[in-house]
Design a protein that fits this description.
Length: about 270
């Protein structure tokens, strides 16, 4: 029997959801995403849960969506892509919509879909080792949940997303307002638990309704409609064949994911930060 793709602990009002595909840098496949959605639903139904920590096992929070699994699936039509992207969208937004506050504990890679998960969480604590980024445009894809401009503003969001930058250091992410705090790697879990404990000690009804009020203020500003439109555009992006996507897929099938990513990154070498 294979190991579970997520691990969940729950004690003293603090739940801890951990992505558990360390050999794949916690890349999100359908099994992991479905398990996460189910786990968050169960935690939402537990009145004793007051906060949820979200982290990744091994060397990374997550490298994003599993490109190998995506390439292996036969996604040809807009309908195929919509079904897949709606699963990804629901997985990401589950952390935004959770009844209680969610705190991402990022380390190592936090890219693409994983970056969107960190944005969807109510707070993010980052280890100094963390690199954030949105490299989707490098291989002809797009963001599933377009939360980035809502968190940091359009100028910086466009810079990162339109260049496909995947090397945003934790300190720059802090300056951009993408994370709440940067700590030493060995202090990440302790800092996350400290923050979670402060929230768990507060009046739960007040905490949960305050989160809901903030989220609803974004809804009034048009967040939900913007995300729905963004998802429609992402379906169109992924369902439209391009030379870049065909070449990336060909290299992936013939030489593996690492070779395909190396081909992608070589074309964008001048985008790397110094």
């Amino acid at each position: 029997m294979s190991d579970p793709t997520i691990l969940v602990e729950n004690a003293d009002g603090i739940a801890h959801l951990r992505f558990n595909r360390p050999e794949q840098l916690n890349a999100f496949n359908n099994e992991l995403m479905t398990s996460s959605i189910e786990a968050v639903d169960k935690l939402n139904a537990d009145p004793d849960v007051r906060v949820i920590l979200v982290s990744g096992e091994g060397r990374a929070f997550s490298a994003g969506f599993d490109l190998k699994a995506a390439s292996d699936r036969s996604l040809q039509t807009s309908s195929d892509w919509r079904k897949q992207l709606e699963l990804q969208f629901d997985f990401i937004m589950g952390f935004w919509n959770a009844r209680v506050p969610t705190i991402a504990l990022a380390h190592g890679y936090c890219l693409a879909g994983a970056f969107e998960v960190s944005l969807a969480c109510d707070m993010t604590v980052a280890a100094k080792s963390t690199f954030f980024g949105e490299p989707e445009v490098r291989f002809g894809s797009g963001a599933v949940a377009m939360l980035f401009p809502w968190v940091t503003g359009p100028k910086q969001a466009k810079e990162i997303m339109l260049t496909g930058d995947d090397r945003i250091p934790a300190e720059r992410a802090l300056q951009m307002g993408l994370v709440n705090k940067v700590v030493l790697d060995e202090e990440l879990l302790a800092e996350g638990k400290r923050l979670a404990s402060k929230i768990a000690r507060a009046a739960p009804d007040s905490v949960q309704k305050s989160k809901l009020a903030i989220n609803r203020s974004y809804d009034i500003m048009g967040l939900r409609n913007a995300l729905a439109m963004g998802l429609d555009l992402d379906v169109d992006i992924n369902a439209t064949p391009t030379w870049e996507k065909k070449e990336f897929s060909r290299i992936r099938k013939e030489q593996g994911v690492k070779a395909a990513i190396a081909w992608r990154d070589t074309r964008f070498a001048d985008n790397k930060n110094d």
